[in-house]
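Narrative of accomplishments. A recurring question from our advisory board has been how the design workflow behaves on a single, concrete structure rather than in aggregate. To address it, we present the structure tokens for one chain from the evaluation set, followed by the sequence designed for it. No filtering or post-editing was applied between the two.
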């Protein structure tokens, strides 16, 4: 073996300063020095002392909210019960006081009496009803406003302050009539339930204004100036009262002599000068019947009849003439397929018939049954059937409507279309609204029962068409042109290939019903 000592470079002396004690170069060690163990016992463990944290007592559990003390049950005296019942009787209700406001006032009155232990001492028989209390509070609140606005308008010395009025006029033009939505009305600061402010309606002339000139004045002074603007009719130099009529407890008595009047939805108390009395309404009805026969303008006739119904309602006229107006309007709406207006008339007629005011209740009960068949309202239909008397079931119109219901329930389309061709009164207009879907259902059954084809004349007779052309057009409307073939014995309908087409059309027809149907 070749020895490293015999290498030719072995005798080469190393550079000075690089040799150690034994002549080897000193390089840094490639390990960490470790102390040599002197025994086999494990070294003692040294624990670092831990600072013991201070133990705090656990927080006390939160106290449960105390259950509110249950209010003991009060045995209300009979006079209090009579007072509550008398408050909600129809003859004691007021049109300008809402039921919700009455309930709030009634609850406050009884609660105050209960807290003061005066339930037995108050004369409940002579105590004003809550609706009368509310009306009295409104009238009392309006008196000081009117007086203060007049005093302020006169400048306190009997003279009108024209300079302030002119300045306010200029200011109103500058701000463009903007309203101050943040201004607080006097009663809103006292009534936290906001019941009174919800009942009061302001028009543009009565709403408060926002004026930068009020920044340096007090709150009461600003309120006074706003009242002046409201009562003075929008910065006018002379005082004029509000043209809107004061609400009354009784019905309105109309004084209008115009026969034709356009219908407008009421947003305030009705003005007697714009309401026609019953004699004028009778003349209007005669005029409208002549115009309907002559012109047939349904848009105009419907608007005039709605105006007549409104005048009857605000005057609380409920007699045989009222029934006649609603019946004629319902028939015209049926003729034009306006189910929205017909349904409104039908609902009012049901209430009028209950008061035994005359009219044709049998005819319209039959219409009502057909209407619920069209809308598929089984619950309402069962209610109508339950209200029928034995004598009413024998009437021709009602018996026909019941037979229609029975035929559809049994799936007897042959009998259904025989009844369709022999409908009394104006029931055919109602049956026209659901006869298409019943034809689709019957045709779907024919396609399953008759194969491979049937005569088109058979379809015409079974489904109540007036002619073969109408039956063919019905099939064409559902993309069935290829289902009609001309053969030796005449035109035939290929029923064996039409099953899927009319089954899908039937499902779509029964899937959606337009209940409102308003034009």
């Amino acid at each position: 073996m070749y020895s490293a000592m015999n290498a030719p470079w072995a005798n080469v002396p190393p550079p000075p300063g690089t040799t150690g004690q034994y002549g080897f170069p000193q390089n840094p060690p490639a390990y960490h020095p470790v102390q040599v163990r002197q025994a086999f016992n494990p070294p003692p463990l040294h624990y670092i002392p831990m600072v013991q944290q201070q133990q705090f007592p656990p927080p006390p559990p939160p106290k449960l909210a105390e259950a509110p003390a249950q209010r003991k049950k009060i045995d209300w005296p009979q006079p209090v019960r009579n007072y509550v019942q008398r408050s909600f009787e129809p003859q004691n209700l007021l049109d300008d006081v809402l039921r919700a406001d009455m309930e709030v006032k009634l609850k406050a009155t009884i609660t105050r009496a209960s807290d003061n232990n005066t339930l037995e001492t108050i004369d409940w028989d002579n105590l004003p009803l809550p609706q009368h209390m509310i009306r009295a509070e409104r009238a009392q609140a309006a008196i000081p406003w009117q007086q203060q606005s007049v005093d302020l308008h006169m400048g306190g010395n009997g003279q009108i302050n024209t300079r302030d009025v002119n300045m306010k006029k200029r200011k109103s033009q500058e701000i463009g009539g903007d309203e101050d939505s943040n201004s607080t009305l006097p009663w809103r600061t006292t009534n936290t339930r906001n019941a009174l402010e919800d009942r009061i309606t302001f028009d543009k002339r009565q709403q408060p204004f926002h004026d930068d000139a009020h920044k340096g004045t007090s709150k009461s002074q600003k309120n006074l100036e706003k009242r002046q603007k409201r009562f003075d009719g929008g910065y006018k130099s002379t005082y004029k009262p509000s043209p809107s009529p004061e609400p009354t407890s009784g019905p309105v008595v109309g004084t209008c002599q115009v026969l034709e009047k356009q219908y407008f939805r009421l947003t305030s108390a009705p003005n007697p000068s714009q309401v026609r009395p019953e004699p004028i309404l009778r003349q209007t009805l005669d005029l409208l019947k002549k115009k309907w026969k002559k012109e047939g303008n349904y848009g105009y006739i419907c608007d005039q009849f709605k105006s007549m119904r409104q005048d009857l309602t605000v005057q609380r006229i409920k007699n045989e003439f009222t029934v006649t107006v609603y019946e004629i309007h319902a028939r015209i709406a049926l003729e034009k397929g306006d189910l929205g207006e017909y349904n409104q008339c039908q609902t009012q007629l049901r209430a009028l018939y209950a008061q035994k005011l005359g009219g044709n209740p049998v005819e319209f009960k039959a219409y009502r049954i057909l209407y619920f068949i069209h809308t598929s309202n089984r619950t309402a239909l069962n209610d109508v059937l339950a209200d029928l008397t034995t004598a009413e079931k024998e009437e021709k119109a009602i018996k026909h409507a019941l037979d229609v219901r029975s035929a559809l329930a049994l799936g007897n389309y042959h009998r259904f279309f025989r009844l369709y061709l022999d409908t009394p009164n104006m029931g055919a207009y109602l049956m026209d609204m659901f006869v298409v879907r019943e034809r689709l259902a019957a045709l779907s059954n024919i396609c399953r029962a008759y194969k491979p084809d049937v005569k088109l004349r058979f379809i015409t007779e079974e489904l109540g068409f007036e002619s073969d052309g109408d039956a063919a057009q019905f099939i064409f409307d559902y993309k069935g042109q290829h289902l009609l073939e001309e053969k030796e014995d005449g035109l035939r309908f290929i029923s064996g290939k039409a099953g899927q087409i009319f089954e899908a059309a039937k499902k779509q027809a029964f899937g959606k019903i337009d209940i409102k149907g308003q034009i």
